[in-house]
Amino acid sequence: MKALKIETTLFVFENENELPEDVSKLIDLAKKARLKAYAPYSNFAVGAAILLDNNEVVTGSNQENASYPSGLCAERTAIYYAGAKYPDAKILKIAIVAGSLKFETSQPIPPCGACRQAIAEYEVNQKTNIEIYFMGTSGNILKSNSLENLLPLIFDKSQL
Ligand code: THU
């Protein structure tokens, strides 16, 4: 037996002033989208903004449901909207802002596993990396250069 070591690298921005201008704008749009979250059950609101290579930005927020599993995360709301509206565009960057509606969330909140799997589908199909930036409602912003960095050992269509 031998060990298989998997490494990943993320980048930390201490605040929004350190971000490139286009990313800072995308974070602002994710913050705005977060304000439209429908999260009466968890009181945890998430906004996502996606920059496409046609220069369009698509946003989404989490949408909950009285039947809890029927709700959808912000990232998937946004990426499915992007796929539905601009099926030929490539996804360049995703910004995610997430946090409690009851208290400050100062640590970066990464996309959940199901959202990573959903984003992976698009990254695999378009054959170019998707940059992912995520933060709480304040504090550091983390950057991943690709979805693959957040989800090593991706299950994708090549295995079907
Ligand atoms: N949520 C997201 O929108 N994105 C994630 O990646 C994690 C969780 C939402 C789902 C639910 O509405 C609330 O946050 C609490 O889980």
Automatic annotation (TrEMBL):
The keyword Nucleotide-binding does not apply. Keywords: Hydrolase, Metal-binding, Zinc. Substrate binds at N62, Q63, E64, N65, A66, S67, Y68. Zn(2+) binds at C73, C112, C115. Its cofactor is Zn(2+). GO terms for molecular function: cytidine deaminase activity; identical protein binding; zinc ion binding. One of its GO terms (cellular component) is cytosol. It catalyses: 2'-deoxycytidine + H2O + H(+) = 2'-deoxyuridine + NH4(+); cytidine + H2O + H(+) = uridine + NH4(+). Pfam families: dCMP_cyt_deam_1 (PF00383). Residues 21-158 form the CMP/dCMP-type deaminase domain. Its EC number is 3.5.4.5. The keyword Metal-binding applies. One of its GO terms (biological process) is pyrimidine-containing compound metabolic process. SUPFAM superfamilies: Cytidine deaminase-like. The active site is at E75 (proton donor). Belongs to the cytidine and deoxycytidylate deaminase family. NCBIfam families: cyt_deam_tetra (TIGR01354), PRK05578.1 (NF004064). This enzyme scavenges exogenous and endogenous cytidine and 2'-deoxycytidine for UMP synthesis. PANTHER family: CYTIDINE DEAMINASE. This is Cytidine deaminase. It comes from Jejuia pallidilutea. The lineage of its organism: Bacteria, Pseudomonadati, Bacteroidota, Flavobacteriia, Flavobacteriales.
